[in-house]
Amino acid sequence: MKFFIDELPVLFPYPRVYPEQYAYMCDLKRTLDAGGHCVLEMPSGTGKTVSLLSLIVAYQQFHPEMRKLIYCSRTMSEIEKALAELKGLMKYRTEQLGYEEEFRGLGLTSRKNLCLHPSVKREKSGTVVDARCRSLTAGFVKEKKERGEDVELCVYHENLDLLEPHNLIPPGVWTFDGMLKYGEQHKQCPYFTARRMMPFCNVIIYSYHYLLDPKIAERVSKELSKDCIVVFDEAHNIDNVCIESLSIDLTEDSLRKATRGVNNLDRKITEMKSTDAAKLQNEYAKLVEGLREAEEARDENAFMANPALPDDLLKEAVPGNIRRAEHFVAFLKRFIEYLKTRMKVLSVISETPPSFLSHLRDLTFIERKPLRFCAERLTSLVRTLELTNIEDYQPLQEVATFATLISTYETGFLLIIEPFESATATVPNPILHFTCLDAAIAIKPVFERFSSVIVTSGTMSPLDMYPRMLNFSCVVQESFTMTLTRRTFLPMIVDRGSDQNQVTSQFEHRNDPQVVRNFGNLLIEFCKLTPDGVVVFFPSYLYMESIISMWQGSGVLDEVWKYKLILVETPDAVETSLALETYRTACNNGRGAVLLCVARGKVSEGIDFDHHYGRTVLCMGVPYQYTESRILKARLEFLRETYRIKESDFLSFDAMRHAAQCLGRVIRGKDDYGVMVLADKRFGKKITQLPKWIQMALDGKNTKLSVDQAVGSAKAFLREMSVPWTRGQMEGTSTWSLEELETHQKKQKGMGVLGVEERRAEGRAVDVVMMERRETVEVTEVTEVDEFGGGEDMDALMGDMDA
Amino acid sequence: MSKAASRANGASTKRLAEDGDICPVCKSSRYLNPNMRFRVNPECYHRMCESCVDRIFSHGPAACPIAGCKRTLRRARFREQTFEDLKVEREVDIRKRVARVMNKTESDFETLRDYNNYLETVEEITWNLILKIDLEATEKRLRLWEEAQKAEVESINSTVSRRLHTATDTVDPQSDTARVILKKSGVQRKALGPSSANTPEPGAMDTGLKDTGFTFAGLKKRVAPEPEKPFDPYGGWNIEPQYYTVMDDYDVDFISGAKTDVHHLAGGYDIRDFYSRALCEAFSGFGVFVEEEVIARENQASGDVGVGTQTAATVADGGKEVNMDDIF
Ligand code: SF4
Ligand SMILES: [Zn+2]
Ligand SMILES: [Zn+2]
């Protein structure tokens, strides 16, 4: 359908649109017009991706400056889904407009997924693929070839140079499969095609890392212009991605390997001095002048890029005492030896970067400045030495990155050396964590550089947490719900068992026999009443293992076994995917299965349990982080001191976003239905931290149930759900045709400001206070944070149906 | 990044068997004697165990027991080894010496490039010492440089003291030291000759007066520090009233009598003291906002990244507890 949002014509590739999709698009447009950042929460299964793409593509085509869209998602499968949606959308646009628009949409993923070279692509590990590809494509290898030496090059890469640089691939949207096919036909490398075509694309879809990890971003995303529209989808975990991209762990083993790497470099330098001293001299001369070659910056094969250096420093010349290759190598050696001595501690050390640096200077006379240039200097050296077996230098690279980071950031980072693996260990096995405490550091360049950044996900409550943690301000902040004509999911909080004993995963009580028994009863009962699949989430592997073994002893598992096949997630990816496959098969035939998994594991983040694959989800206990970790403690303290986020607020926010992720796994669309059970008495007080769409569906009387009461409600709910429901009944309220949409728009225009009813009709989260007053309370600020919503209309509706 | 840098299994067992764990002198190993500790002497950097050191050197200086070394070592100079790699241990000792002499900073130079050249030269000197290239010559030049530096500092100190005493001494205090160096440099010039190709030539002395061992382009002249200002006990804090100015006289009825009344003038009483006191009382508390203080007390967070990092470090150390009870 085609409709207008203000002056903007939007082509939407489906005949009907959900009200929340429309509202979502309106907010997106508002953000783009205002030129700022926004945070939007929209439940999964409401077509978030397609709304996003439709609006932004419409916006691009309507405005002459054609702002580029950078769409970042988390996993390969999500990126592929987005590419497919985009392809569908562009096809629809072509049909509607009657002509094909000049448009390019590309996805980018690692070489491992896009390589065509017959022997390279068979390598299992991504780093090996990268390294081997580099040895086949690097500039100096090519030079050697030209000089007539016998070296191997990748033809797929060579062929690219024969094409026009801005037209390596015809316009259109290219999925990864499409790219691979096209590459095979034309004998050109899909990976480098995508990389080189990025400046000429209208839409780029890739993983977060290409933008957030400074080591990759520097290389891949450097040329993107300032007015790009950046979208982070599934962004509920973005703070952790940011932190991980700047944290480094070093062990004694990796230091040993780094030493080996340095010694290799040393040898290579001596060799080169006798064979080709001019090269080293050349590099030296360049460093003296402080020149960075233009092509160097664009080198798509660079060994590693500089992690997050301020621009002014990038323009400065490398300090004199590490200009000469041999001096630099000795410098690295000294630094690594120093780190080795630091590893020999017997108690935990925690240090800020300045204190580390001053100790380092006292002991080894290494100053801060040359340390900052470590990563850059190493890259230059590796390039000069024309090294090809780069994977051998990985540990050394890590040390250099560490050096650069610790000397660049005085704050927001912490060095923790733990000599023992656990509190009870007696043999030291030290590990050095260089941990980033501040998620804002990695993402800051993104917010600063791009004028519009859209952060969106199904679970982002409380909405203001993200702007605070990531330290940015946004122009629009909104939470959407799912507009439904009947309640298709039933969230419940179970706080006690049938015996009135509490249900909780609190540390002091989690192993009490009553608690374990009540968890067991809950599982048995829901396995009895649920058709097809049941998914169960535990706070940690440790707890899952201990509770399973206790259930084993008390016969719970035998009881469950009568109704469902039992499958368990393990930390091993292969085992887990096997379990998942079996689970699916069991759900497709027969009585179904129960999958026991962990709230922070792979399953909870990336696997969908739509329709019969998940009719009930049980969250056994609040999925808190392991609070004894020093790194977590340090981060909590940092958040409190710096961003004024209380420790308990952050911990429960973090636990609840994971719980919400788990719950969201079973509802993947409007025609899906399922039961969501939060089994812990502590959930009762944290309702407000659930996403709005779950909050609003959570009936007040379902927040304090015992196991048998929950079973009663769930049975009634499932009975209702078995009544056939046609699409026709959804029309008007939960999906709009074009006329309905236009009626709504007309009404809205007359109003100026949205009232409660209109907000609700659009699927926006509504404040409970406003609902009670039942008047058109004016919502002057849309960025207001909503508190809690109940679904009174739902009740009325349910009542009607019962009658 | 490699968050998953797993700890190498068995790293600890390897640690015990590391090759360096046998004393080269008495051949006892850490395996048999877990408390064994090693010592090195910066004279030759040969390792030996503590009991060997005690045995061999307790009666005064003796020759190093390692074959082919023969250096005379003193017990007092034996010390614990900091770095696993003894080459680095020695390198650091040499650096310590060089750093004491070559202690210029970036601000001492006209341009960054000059500073970088200086750094490179220093690095080269250090490596000459470490690799024993041109050892004699380099040592000498270092010594010269040190003396020249000292002389410069002294001359500045004397200028400062001269300034303090406002004495107008016409005799150049530099001339004495300069003459000494001049005498030496004549000898050194010949000795130095064509030194290592890497290091710059001792520099054609533009003045032809003294040889400082090294010359660095773009090195600023040392200037005498600004004379210190008189001590301010308030540390720059202003005690002038902020919200009012006290005037000499106020024309108010109720004090007009007191102004002229002789009784009030007893004991040197001044009416102006009364004015300033009264105004001070009237305005005290101005500019203090209770609400602000309450808020500040409530969220006792500084909002400062530096403080945050610092406290986080304390927490990770176990120095402070984070409130993390399952508060529900
Ligand atoms: S250039 Fe492309 S095809 Fe060739 S090895 Fe590299 S990734 Fe593979
Ligand atoms: Zn011994
Ligand atoms: Zn010796």
TrEMBL record, chain A:
Q: What is its main location?
A: nucleus
| Cofactor entry | [4Fe-4S] cluster
Keyword Chaperone attached: no
Q: Name one GO cellular component term.
A: nucleotide-excision repair factor 3 complex
Which Pfam family, just one, is annotated for this protein?
Answer: Helicase_C_2
User: Which InterPro entries does the UniProt entry name for this protein?
Assistant: ATP-dep_Helicase_C, DinG/Rad3-like, HBB, Helic_SF1/SF2_ATP-bd_DinG/Rad3, Helicase-like_DEXD_c2, P-loop_NTPase, RAD3-like_helicase_DEAD, Rad3/Chl1-like
- What EC class does the entry list? isomerase
Q: Which residues form a coiled coil?
A: none
Cellular location(s): Nucleus
One GO molecular-function entry: ATP binding
Biological process according to GO: nucleotide-excision repair; positive regulation of mitotic recombination; transcription by RNA polymerase II
Fetch the CDD domains from UniProt. SF2_C_XPD
Full protein name: DNA 5'-3' helicase
Automatic annotation (TrEMBL), chain B:
Name the PANTHER family on file.
CDK-ACTIVATING KINASE ASSEMBLY FACTOR MAT1
Where in or outside the cell it occurs: the entry states: Nucleus
Give GO BP annotations, semicolon-separated: nucleotide-excision repair; regulation of transcription by RNA polymerase II
Q: Which CDD domains match?
A: RING-HC_TFB3-like
Protein species of origin: Clohesyomyces aquaticus
An example of a GO molecular function for this protein is: cyclin-dependent protein serine/threonine kinase activator activity
- Name this protein carries in UniProt: RNA polymerase II transcription factor B subunit 3
Keywords annotated in UniProt: Kinase, Metal-binding, Nucleus, Transferase, Zinc, Zinc-finger
Please provide one cellular component term from the Gene Ontology annotations of this protein. Answer: transcription factor TFIIK complex
Signal peptide span: none
Instruction: Report domain RING-type positions.
Output: 23-66
The superkingdom of the source organism is: Eukaryota
Q: What is the lineage of its organism?
A: Eukaryota, Fungi, Dikarya, Ascomycota, Pezizomycotina
